[in-house]
Amino acid sequence: MSVIRQPEVLGRTTRRRVVGVAAALSAAAVETAGVGLWFGLVVGSRTIAAALAGLGVLFCGALLRTGVFGATVTDLETLVEPARLGAALVLTAGWIVWLFVAELIGGSVGVAVGTAVLAGILTGQFALERRVFRPRAADGATVVPGLVLAAGASVLLATAWFLDRGLSAPPLSLGFTTIVVELTALHIGLLAFALSGALAHQRRLQRALDP
Hints:
Layout: H1 7-44, H2 48-73, H3 81-105, H4 107-133, H5 143-162, E1 167-168, E2 172-174, E3 177-179, E4 182-183, H6 185-209
Antiparallel strand pairs: 1-4, 2-3
Helix pairs in contact: 1-2, 1-6, 2-3, 3-4, 4-5, 5-6
């Protein structure tokens, strides 16, 4: 019997897709905010206070992003808090290792090596989340999302290191006020990171929601 003759099947499929897209956008927004604030703090200021504040922001963002995945693919009543904390800690450590490796090597080589390391860590962290919240036989659903998100992170780092100028629109005069819209290098990098995050999370959440 075709899907057209089974409206309940079509309805469930549509709901899964809508839930997957909404959750992916939420996860990407949380991750962009957390990683972006942390990145801006540690790159812009090398003080201990900024490092500690950035670490707190990064961990909170990782905890929220992990929570979005868990709430999407399983019932909240079955959420295992210690495992959720462990997944968030792995994610937090992954971002720190990424930036440390990139800065240790430096230059375009540092960006490339850091991206490769981050892709491996993200792939493992995604697999850990999948095992914690929705145990299932491995199907490779975490590899591509890990690569996509790591690629977005490499653009973020490259724009901060190598892009001196941003993009700006011509001044717009409105009565007594002149508005200038300008995108700095960090804004461009964050935009690319947000897009990669949405794509990565949409793919893995859709795979996790499939029956």
